[in-house]
Write a structure and sequence with these properties.
CATH topology: Rossmann fold
Radius of gyration: 15 Å
Protein name: Methylglyoxal synthase
CATH architecture: 3-Layer(aba) Sandwich
Strand content: 15-25%
Organism: Microbulbifer halophilus
Number of strands: 7
Oligomer: single chain
Active site: 71 (proton donor/acceptor)
InterPro entries: Methylgl_synth, Methylglyoxal_synth_AS, MGS-like_dom, MGS-like_dom_sf
Largest sheet: 5 strands, parallel
Bound molecules: 1,3-dihydroxyacetonephosphate
Helix content: 40-55%
Shape: globular
Number of domains: 1
EC number: 4.2.3.3
Amino acid sequence: MEFIAQSLPATKRVALVAHDNRKAALIEWCSRHRELLQRHRLFATGTTGTRVEEATGLEVEKLFSGPMGGDQQLGAKISQGEIDLLIFFWDPFEPMPHDPDVKALLRIAAVWNIPVACNASSADMMVQSALMEVSFDREVPDYLGYLAAR
Ligand SMILES: O=C(CO)COP(=O)(O)O
């Protein structure tokens, strides 16, 4: 696989996702970073988005609920370059009926080299990074080159 440079914009499109046992932690995290988050564009799986909106007043674009396809919708958006950052508080203590979707979402985030945080301390470090509010280049697979070589 060849790679090319592609920039992430200064105003980030942030995906927020939390499994049920982790929703309180994500809401607490969003409340702590509310001022920063309102300068960016927020997306979420259905229930997570509703809870974050109710608790913080932040505006969130809500996709389907995770088990009904929301993780896959986010994965498609990442592939299409429509999500810049993934904050996914997945539950390390419970198996999920949609575990394959969860794994697929984490895989596609790795493929497209977007920043991912799976817990509050990683998410704290991510949003406090000097790169959070500037445009910066990262390497992504050269999709057109990949197609041409097939
Ligand atoms: O299941 C999820 C992620 O895998 C999250 O879905 P909800 O936000 O709808 O609870």
